Amino acid sequence: MIDEVLSKEQRVLRVLRKVLANIVKDVTPAPGMPHPLKDSTIRDIRDLFGLIAEREAELAAHAMPDRNEKPFYVDQPPKNNVLKFHPAGKDKPPEAE
């Protein structure tokens, strides 16, 4: 269901990030063992994760201009209450006799 809402580029980025993370997990050695990847490859992987994150943020900003909004439910009471104030002495309702 969530994939229906996402664009093709967003789905590609999500899968790319997951596959890259799984590759990193698979080649990560036990503590004390030498790393099978070159330092340049590790830097490239970090750069790629950074580029993926930047593009995902750009797409999210384009889709939702205010990404800091928090979700709310329709049946949830509003946090803000609007109060109407009338100036003192004006627009007084007639007093009941």
How is the secondary structure organized here?
Blueprint: H1 2-5, H2 8-27, H3 39-63
Helix pairs in contact: 2-3
Question: What are the main properties of this structure?
Answer:
single chain; 97 residues
Structural class label? mainly alpha
The biggest beta sheet reads:
none
Radius of gyration: 27 Å
Q: Identify the overall geometry.
A: elongated
Proportion of strand residues: under 5%
> H/E series, N to C?
HHH
Low-confidence parts, pLDDT < 50 over ≥5 residues? none
What would you say about this model in short?
The protein has 97 residues and is an all-alpha fold. It has a domain at 2-63.
Can you offer a commentary on this structure?
- The model has no long low-confidence stretch (mean pLDDT about 80).
- The chain has a domain at about 1-65.
- α2 packs antiparallel against α3 (about 40-65).
- With about 100 residues, the chain is an all-alpha fold.
- Helices cover about 50% and strands about 0% of the residues.
- It has helices spanning about 1-5, 10-25, 40-65.
